[in-house]
Amino acid sequence: MTQPIIAILRGLTPTDALAVGEALIDAGIDRIEVPLNSSDPLESIRLMATAFAGRATIGAGTVLTVEDVARVADVGGRMIVSPNTNPEVIRETRRLGLESYPGVFTATECFAAIAAGATGLKLFPADQAGTVALKALRAVLPRDMSVYAVGGVGPNNFADWIAAGAQGFGIGSSLYKPGDSADQVGQRAREMVAALPA
């Protein structure tokens, strides 16, 4: 079953990509991003997109340019996640048939992202915005627009964010750090999934 978590594997290497990806999928986390400031990120994305086709949505994070979108699409990535709202990046992502999750912080950014065709919104950094800000944003955002809280979120506050209107979460270093074994990642992933409100 798909869980409302996007795994952020910053620093992942191609050597570890398949084992870590398999551990996440086995735990129920089947949306995985490899930030482009990782080591050889396109190769990691290519390996996972090929191996997990039909089982998981693999994509890139920290995507800042239209050229990066094309590179991710060329290796089979299906999801583009950015720290910012760049309408050109969003439009190109959607034109290529990929999912788009731009970073937003203000109402202006939210609606610019929606107008450009965003699949969902990444509230970042969520811990700086806080649940009060999300609740205010949810009052004006379209009901069918998903918001993922990213940055400073975890099992101890999942329920608070969901109550404020989050549909999901992006989880990075508390799920994966470079050098972690697949077993470690899988254990953390299972614990996070278990912590999600029923």
Automatic annotation (TrEMBL):
Enzyme class: lyase
GO terms of molecular function: 2-dehydro-3-deoxy-6-phosphogalactonate aldolase activity
Keyword check for Protein biosynthesis: no
Protein name stated in the entry: 2-dehydro-3-deoxy-6-phosphogalactonate aldolase
Family: Belongs to the KHG/KDPG aldolase family.
Annotated EC: 4.1.2.21
Entry keyword set: Carbohydrate metabolism, Lyase
PANTHER family in alphabetical order: 2-DEHYDRO-3-DEOXY-6-PHOSPHOGALACTONATE ALDOLASE-RELATED, 2-KETO-3-DEOXY-6-PHOSPHOGLUCONATE ALDOLASE
Signal peptide segment: none
Cross-referenced Gene3D superfamilies: Aldolase class I
SUBUNIT field: Homotrimer.
Pathway listed: Carbohydrate acid metabolism
